[in-house]
Amino acid sequence: MITTDTTIKNIITESLAKATSYQTYRTLVQDLVAAGKSTGEEQTEALSNYSMLNDRRMKRLDKTTKLTEEAIAEIKSYNGDVTWLILTESWCGDAAQTMPVINKVAELNDNITLKVVLRDENEALMNEFLTNGGKSIPKLIAIDNASGDVIGNWGPRPTKATQLVNDYKAEHGTLTPEFKQDLQVWYNKDKGQNTVSDLLKLV
Q1: Is pTM, for the whole model, over 0.90?
Q2: Can you tell me the distance from the alpha carbon of 89 to that of 78, in angstroms, rounded to the nearest whole number?
Q3: Gene3D superfamilies this protein is in (predicted)?
């Protein structure tokens, strides 16, 4: 089935109606973690543990993420009018490492509205923005507010992290728990800078 532009716009409109702010999403995750839960219908000990770890990560990154003067100037000079709609879930490690950075960028310019929806509650939207056929998150969809057109998308990882993942998969076939730990170390060293440079291409 070929999805028409009109259909995609309708799907996006429906998802936007359910979307929350970043701050509301953070409160939701904190409340779920306090109750020993995660987002999504599936509730397991592993997912709740990931969510707890990610809540801590996001809390830290919300406080510590810093942007360069050059990046700040470039973001502030953007004069479009867009909504960045992010598909995510609380258990996703890549989302925890990048969403606070995305929020910092969006906060710098009133022309960028950041909205959040949960992947498993927005299947039709997720299916329009698959990565290599998979429902990988986070996925940021940039929407022009005047026309409703999708003018770009990003995710599920910054470009350098994507390269690390692709190289490892090519050599080993699958991502091991050890690699996933190494990827978190890479995120911690990068401090969101690769995510910022990717996002600058959307503005």
Answers
A1: yes
A2: 29
A3: Glutaredoxin
